[in-house]
Amino acid sequence: MYSSESIEKLVEILSTLPTIGRKTAQRLTFYLLRQPESFIEQFSTALIDIKKNVKLCNICFNFTETIPCPICMSDKRNKQIICVVEEPNDILAIEKTHEFNGQYHVLHGVINPLEGISADDLKIRELISRVAQNNIEEVILALNPSVQGELTTFYVAKLLNQLQVKVSKIASGVPMGSAIEYADEATISRALEGRIII
């Protein structure tokens, strides 16, 4: 316990963030304490602004400040191909490759019975509706190569196959158990190029 309640409170809050343990939370707290007040004000304003201004796109469910998002609005994108990803940061990783020029759809997670996450908790229903209502030629399932990612891939593929749309999944250039956001551009490019019809 610290002699300051404010320090303890910030350490507790920071340690709830992903990949931030208590020791890292302590280091971050003491780093922030050493910063000028102007930095703290900018930091807190940025946090408030991101929460106020960033929403989910009503088409692809990526984070955006404009509805729909710039990718969904772009006339330069191929609107007949949708790449399905787990999280918004996967879009950033794929976009860095400059290999994909279609649309995206973010599920916001994967089916994980152990954590109580079912298909109803994800944006699967919205994907099926989007594919059914539009002239979609192909859906690429680019979920992370984990047990839960594979389970979700096959669940979604089964639903999409009923719509008679071409369904593919990225090749296994991304190692099992890793995440797309951490793969390099060349690996993601190969995985997209070598995608498998399912």
- The domain count comes to 2
Per CATH, the architecture of the largest domain is 3-Layer(aba) Sandwich
Question: For the residues shown, what is the average pLDDT?
Answer: 90
Count the helices. How many?
Answer: 8
Description:
It is built from eight helices and seven strands; from the N terminus they run H-H-H-E-E-H-E-H-E-H-E-H-E-H-E. The protein has two domains: 5-53, Helicase, Ruva Protein, domain 3 (Orthogonal Bundle), CATH 1.10.8; 75-197, Dna Topoisomerase Vi A Subunit, Chain: A, domain 2. The model has no long low-confidence stretch (mean pLDDT 90). The strands form two sheets. The protein has a five-stranded mixed β-sheet with strand order 4-3-5-6-7. A two-stranded antiparallel sheet has the order 1-2. Helix 1 packs across helix 2. It has helices spanning 5-14, 22-34, 37-53, 70-73, 88-95, 124-133, 147-161, 185-193, and strands at 55-56, 63-64, 78-85, 102-106, 138-141, 166-169, 196-197. The longest helix is centred in the N-terminal third of the chain and has 17 residues, at 37-53. Helix content is 43%, strand content 14%. The protein has 198 residues and is of the alpha/beta class. It starts with a helix and ends with a strand.
